[in-house]
Amino acid sequence: MTLNLTAEHKMLLALATKAQKNAHAPYSNFHVGAAILDENAQHHACCNVENAAYPLGQCAEAGAISAMIAAGSKQIKQILIVSPNNNFCPPCGGCRQKIAEFANAETEVHMATKSGDIKTVKFTELLPLAFGFDKKD
Question: Which residues form the active site (predicted)?
């Protein structure tokens, strides 16, 4: 857990928490927010959006990636996922592969709890053998 939050951690946490408040999660009541720092030092955030026709919803990480791509960026430097409770919320398997498309070995994944504790891992710890991860940086 990270006790001394950097300015970047605080920014990503604030953006993810703000997005989390807009989550549409009437089926699971599990509101998640995610925020990305890209290669251009821009920030992108989103929340999860559930759909009655499961699994047509969208995870917060996928939405943040879409926002990043729509803004013209191509690389995730850091991503923070904020949980609605005091358990860390790692990306699901599908989102790990989506993150891999725009990550490199140095990409940091921060997982934040509702109380603000943060755990940070390198992306390769979450998905060490991702499809297509052998791309050049």
Answer: 61
